[in-house]
Amino acid sequence: MNEQSPHTPSRRKVLRTTAAAAGTGLGIGALGSVTAEAAAAAPVEAPSTAAAAPRRKGATMAGVPFAGRSTVRVGLIGLGNRGGSMIGLYLALPWVRVVAVCDPVREKAERAAAKVVAAGQPAPAVYTHGEDDYENLCARSDVDFVHVATPWDSHFPIARAAMLAGKHVGVECPVAMRLDELWELVDLSEQTRRHCMQLENCCYGRNEMRVLRMAHAGKFGRLLHGAGAYNHDLRALMFSPTYYEGPWRRRWHTQLRGDLYPNHGFGPVANYMDVNRGDRAVSISSFGTPALGLAEYREEHMPPGDPSWKESYIGSDRTISLVQTAKGRVIRLEHDVSTPHPYSRINSLGGTRGVFEDYPERIYLEPDHKDDRWGDFAAYAGEFDHWLWKEHANPPGGHGGMDYIMVYRLMQCMQLGLPPDFDVYDAATWTAPVPLSNASIKANGAPQEIPDFTRGEWRKPRSGVDSVKPA
After folding, report:
1. What pLDDT is attached to residue 51?
2. How far does CA 143 lie from the centroid of its chain?
3. Cα separation of 393 and 375, whole Å?
4. pLDDT the model gives residue 44
5. Which end of the chain is more exposed for a tag (fewer CB within 10 A), N or C?
6. Section 11-22 average pLDDT
């Protein structure tokens, strides 16, 4: 899946300091219980010692449309595994122009520029002069949208630079690594009137969008619980000398203990439950296993003298978190990239009328099914597949087509002047488990407040990924 200040810190500096800063100043309190009946009438309270949300510095960006334009001009920053695979999806859309590309590795930027020319577009501007050259791309007057696909530590400073330069920005997961950074992105989006979005492709998976529409149609009854994960054996890739540009992803396991990559699991389930659109995530409690998998893999596969032998891994092999919402619902999140297991995002939703579970996909709903036997999820495709999947039945690109659906829909919203399907509040909420799971684990699982990044706007229903097809 995704890999993913005027004086921007270097990647090495951010990697050294992020873990120390994550979780500082976070209140810890007891989470009260709530009955099913009371949940519908009164919101669950966040931990009582949590700090209040900072004062809003600009108007909300919830539901704010893009300014429509006939052509959407895109700049891409980071052209490795992820960014290099995404450029073709933008080039597949006739109303999109790729006008600039940026990567400190010149060969990657030149390969991306060649793809643009091969697609019949003018040669894009190329920025390859060091790690800060993205600032010059963001300063261009002919860029409407910036796509960020760089190592995690640089996501925040690049998104910040893009908005300050007047650009809308989409960031691969996670959008930032610290709570104060999440708040700053929210404030900057509101101040600059530019959208900052988490490019969460899993929200556009065919199964996820079908479950979303079924949930909104009441097929699951009243929603009670859900689960999402990023359980993906990345050991070989994290120790590969060529897959990542340096060992940046593996080194996060020496810096931070917690859920390093919650977005793929959290985003879809948050959509099912209308988080930030009628419900909100209130608190998170996290627990982590010992960190043994990466060290064992290194012992078996890495030669003596390899630089990885200087590393000490602290990141939990498996982190399990429980998120409670204001309506009393529970979301389970898991993260495990360090042990052998088949790929799974879990992707489960349950309510008073039944349950869906993915990997493999199966469903049980009353009155459709009986005798405790799973039903055929494909039977719901005709009625409940999202219009995007009906319109693009065999989309190009990776991850089963969800990447293309995400890019198509975002560029469509920009062209037609529609609000984006998700915004900076979703980006901050879906990423908050990164620092907060670390804080909870250090506090022996004590619940941590998930801030109300919307500052009360979550109480107002509004549109999201379950969109209506434009006329």
Report:
1. 55
2. 23
3. 23
4. 74
5. C
6. 35
CA distance 204 to 186: 23
pLDDT digits (tens, 9 = 90+) for 272-325: 999 999 999 999 999 999 999 999 999 999 999 999 999 999 999 999 999 999
Q: Using CA atoms, how far apart are residues 358 and 336, in angstroms rounded to an integer?
A: 17
Q: Tens digits of per-residue pLDDT, 147-161? A: 999 999 999 999 999
Question: Which range among 66-70, 186-190, 246-250 shows the weakest confidence by mean pLDDT?
Answer: 246-250
Sign, Cα dihedral of 224, 268, 317, 431: negative
Instruction: Please count the other Cβ atoms lying within 10 Å of the Cβ belonging to residue 305.
Output: 7
The residue among 410 and 10 whose pLDDT is bigger is 410
Q: What is the pLDDT of residue 196?
A: 98
What does pTM read for this prediction?
0.90
With tokens 């920025």, the residue in question is: 127
pLDDT at residue number 350: 98
Residue 169 forms beta bridges with which residues?
146, 196
Residue type present at position 276: N
In terms of Cα–Cα distance, which of 424, 450, 421 is closest to 435? 450
Q: Vertex 421, ends 419 and 424: CA angle to 5°?
A: 85
- pLDDT averaged over every residue in the chain: 91
Cα distances (angstroms) measured from residue 150 to each of 89, 104, 169, 171, 245: 18, 10, 13, 9, 10
